[in-house]
Amino acid sequence: MFKKEKIKDLHYTVTGLISAADLQAAADEILMEHGKKAKLPGFRPGHIPLNILRQKYNTSAITEAIDKLMNKDLNEYITEKKLRLAGSPKADLAAWEIGKDAEYTLDFDVLPTLPDIDLEKFTVTKKIAKLDEAEVEKSLENIRKSRSIAEKQSDEYKAQNGDTAVIDFKGFIGKDAFEGGTAEKHHLILGSGSFIPGFEDQLIGHKAGDEFDVNVKFPADYHASNLAGKDARFAVKIHEVRKHKLPELNDELAKSVGHETVEKLREHIRTILNDQYEEAAKREMRNELLDILAEKVKLDLPDVLVEQELNMAKQEHDRTHANCDGDCGTDHKWDEKKERKEAERRVKLGLILAEWGTQNKVEVSRDDLQQAVWAEASRYPDPKQVFEFYNKNQNALAMLRGMIFERKALDAMLTHVKTKEKNVKPEDLFKQANVH
User: Fold this and answer.
1) Which of 4, 58, 192, 225 is 20 to 30 Å apart from 15, CA to CA?
2) Would you state the pLDDT for residue 328?
């Protein structure tokens, strides 16, 4: 057991001593185990004398033994005191020499004990939105558009918003063409917003055979950092313009998407929209509860977890703004005070949800995990890549499991809080909200 301990909040500094005799005895056990498989000239595996093994491997065995004995002391200590480590301890053996007693110091943080949380004292707002039939009709119109037929127009026809232009283009920054900025006979729906802002607008009014330049500015947050914020010129040629002809809204169209009649299709759309409203309302309730927990629950935080969270945020910030060339603006500067406060919030909420969820037997089932992977895969053109990614990356799967656990813990908490209803417009449900 440790001979000295110093405790400050959640940080522990303990000092232990391992005698040279105990250390060598532990090293000998390791050497004998290793000797069962070791191969040395003149000896059969399992028959190498201990003194020979010491000559060959004693230093590495001593190192392994001291780690083993320090961990043994630490595990006994935290078991007796009912502590839970917040991270790996740091060991200090600076004054130790092989053959002598080993005095060592361990520094570590422990997880806090979650105080009782009376959720019934908290109130969150549940926003209620009445379904607007105009949204149903808009969805029907989108189905018509998705099944439209793009008919080629005459060479004199001038492109309009909503038309498809078949184009060649080549992009330049200054006089130099840039990688990934060239394509031939690309089908671009004007007004779709799939290209850089301003690009599609400059094609409207042109017709087949026209060759011209389009001048745009890449957004400051463009995913390719070498292009972000840069002025660009695209040399464009239009091969043809196609106008979209929409199918009639009838039972035949409804059947093409799996419903017997237009009215049954409308009912299906209403169900989907109402489910979306419900989920959006719950998302806002979750976020409101997170704000309440962050403010109302008093909890000491392990420094090691805050520093880890802050370092990850700093690394992400540096990756995002690595190629700013001093032109990212003040909004992109690292604000240590602000970022630390946000890191503390994330750590605090993570600890609350993890502890409360565990205490209240929240579990992530295999089905929960499979549904989450399916939901993410459905957002990509090739779902198979998503499945393969999670199959090969257990850390990513563990992170996904953690996210599901936190959401389920929050939803379980919401069953205990008070709610007040508030009628809102549908668009008010879908405003972006910050998630911890």
Assistant:
1) 58
2) 57
Location of structure tokens 């806002």: 284
Contact 198, 216 (CB under 8 A): yes
Note the pLDDT of residue 432: 46
Length of the chain: 436
Distance CA 229, CA 332 (A): 14
Cα(167)–Cα(212) distance, integer angstroms: 11
- The 10s digit of each residue's pLDDT in 38-58 is 888 888 878 888 988 898 889
Residues of the chain with pLDDT under 70: 1, 323-331, 431-436
Evaluate whether the domain defined by 149-245 bears CATH number 3.10.50.40: yes
> Do the Cβ atoms of 19 and 3 come closer than 8 Å?
no
Domains 4-109 and 259-429 share a fold: no
The reported pLDDT for the residue numbered 45 is 78
CATH for the 259-429 domain, from 1.10.3120.10, 2.60.120.560, 1.20.1280.290, 3.30.70.100: 1.10.3120.10
List the one residue out of 235, 236, 240 whose CA is nearest residue 163: 240
d(CA 222, CA 199): 15
Q: Do residues 58 and 67 touch, judged by C-beta distance below 8 A?
A: no
Q: CA 330, CA 317: separation in Å to the nearest integer?
A: 13
Q: What share of the chain is helix, strand, coil (3-state, %, to 5)?
A: 45, 20, 35
Could you name the CATH architecture of 4-109? 2-Layer Sandwich (3.30)
Question: What six digits make up the tokens of 116?
Answer: 């009782």
Q: What is the rounded CA–CA span in Å between residue 345 and residue 310?
A: 11
How many whole angstroms separate alpha carbon 381 and alpha carbon 372? 17
Enter the tokens of residue 58: 């004693």
Cβ atoms of residues 369 and 404 within 8 Å = yes
DSSP lists the bridge partners of residue 172 as: 177, 233
Q: What angle do CA 246, 247, 249 make, to 5 degrees?
A: 115
- How many other CB atoms are found less than 10 A from the CB of residue 235? 15
The structural domains of the chain, with segments of one domain joined by +, span 4-109, 149-245, 259-429
